[in-house]
Amino acid sequence: MNYCEILFETEEKYLDCEALIDTENGKRLTYRQLKTEVQKTAKLLKEKGYEPGAVISTHLYNSIEAAVILLAIQYIGCVICLVDPLFKANELIYYLRDSASKCLITHLENKDISAETENETDIKCDVINIKVFNENLSSLDFNYNENEVFYDYKENELAMLLYTSGTSSAPKGVMLTTKCFYTFLEKSNKRMYRYRPEDRLLCYVPFSHAFGSVSLLIPALVGKAAIVFMRSFQPIKISQIIISENISHIFGVPTHYQQLLRYESIFDSLRKLKAAFSAAAPLSYDTALRWRETTGIYLDEGYGMTETTTLIATRLNMLPEPSGNVGFPPDGILRVEAVDENEQVCEDGIIGEMRVSGRGLMLGYLNRPQETSEKLRGGCMHTGDLGYRRSDGSFVLCGRKTEFINVAGLKISPIEIEAALNSHWDVVDSAAIGIADSTYGEVVKAFVILKDDATSSERDLIKYVSGKIANFKVPKVIVILKEFPRNNLGKIDKKALKSI
To answer: What confidence tens digit (pLDDT) does each residue in 314-347 have?
Structure first.
């Protein structure tokens, strides 16, 4: 089992379809060329001595090289460890040590990594700069071999390491198998899109995250569609690329769509899209409605975790009513339930922890048996997210267990407060947190980003939400910011907000 099968079993009639396009350097590969590049890269890795089971880390920006190297690592049966390209040299030490990487392919210079690792005697890792790697490839004596056989992973053999964000603890390596990838494909076929060769998927979400490397790459390879890489999110450039590359699908987090909606000059290009998909953070009703009214298409939404090989539920072709509605799980593959503290399934409408069982769950956290047993109990993934099931079978998320605000013993969902704030005509985005209070234990503090021409004050906003939600939920303080602290994927960093 190896998802290189999807590439190398491409029918002759699709081999000249474009597979990967890099907007940074103009490079383009057809499926025929991609097969050659993957096999050639695999040969280079084998010649460097990497054998099945060895962990190879990549520290690369969104690019054709990032995708080719991922597939080549799969091809030879090694384990790919995807590391955020925004991490500095000193930050890489943790990941190299924790994953026991044998090799790091990075956009940084070798000397920068060497300076950080010279005193780390337990790290034995080859560091290869991507430019040097490409030079080695160009000088490699290589002829494509149609009969060469790629590695066959066993059913529960480790194939990929993806690290959690580590906002509440040290980042943990999520262990995924090739079987997980094929299960994701089944889930995608049931609850997402099925691509065709004429489709073009714009990838500006990090390829180092499962959003790019799993949710986009695998179904695109199946549909013989093309992935168009951008290194970062730039609204005007996105508009230009939608037109020049005939983009059919875009993917992002809610803040990406909020930003796109601020540029009226690009609305005509957005109307050319076939679909738009949001994930990784809660999408407000207001943003979804404005997108629908502006572009004529729905802003679809997904809920997932790296630990479940992304997709848990999706909402397609409808607005998020109420806010937090993430739609339906893929029947027959996953079972999703809201459960109470005694692991009893909650009745519809009652908030509990989201629990997921079925196929495609992680093997566990690398070298963390205790944390694995805490999350994977009784064959179920305990997500740490709170939510409830509606009578139609869809699910509504209410926030992380650790983010719920406890005001005098009353637990408040930050999503409910944010939905009220986001419905205000001057608000672009908001975030609610709990802060310590000597009387109530916690009170609500909110942060907002306002539109450029906004005139509303903190007092105006508090008065507005007082008419939308119960008094004990109304923020005691609202701070107006120019921008939120965010991680690489675009999620608001609420831990950082607590220090503001």
So the answer is: 999 999 998 899 999 999 999 999 999 999 999 9
What tokens were used for 105? 């392919």
Burial 404-442, CB ≥16 within 10 A → b, else e = bbebeeeebbbbbbbbbbbbbebbbbbbbbbeeeeebeb
φ, ψ for residue 259 (rounded to 5)? Answer: -70, -45
Q: Cα–Cα distances in Å, from 274 out to 54, 203, 314, 472?
A: 40, 15, 17, 43
Structure tokens at 80: 């790919």
The first and second tokens of residue 422, run together, are 């986001």
Q: How many CA atoms lie within 13 A of 264 on its CB side?
A: 0
Taking only the tens place, the pLDDT of each residue in 19-31 is 999 999 999 999 9
- % pLDDT > 70, the chain: 98
**What pLDDT, on the 0 to 100 scale, is given for residue 400?**
83
In this prediction, residue 145 carries a pLDDT of 94
Question: Taking the model in full, what pTM does it have?
Answer: 0.87
Compute the average pLDDT of residues 108-128.
Answer: 80
Number of H helices, E strands in the chain: 17, 26
SS3 assignment, position 363? coil
Tokens of 17: 């379809």
| Helix residue ranges, H only, 336-378 | 369-375
What tokens appear for 218 in the block? 């695998």
Q: Residues 126, 105: contact at Cβ < 8 Å?
A: no
Listing DSSP states for 59-70 in one string gives: E--SSHHHHHHH
Q: Which domains does the chain have, with CATH numbers?
A: 4-388 (3.40.50.12780), 404-497 (3.30.300.30)
Residues 6+ apart with CB under 8 A from 67: 20, 207, 213, 217, 227, 229
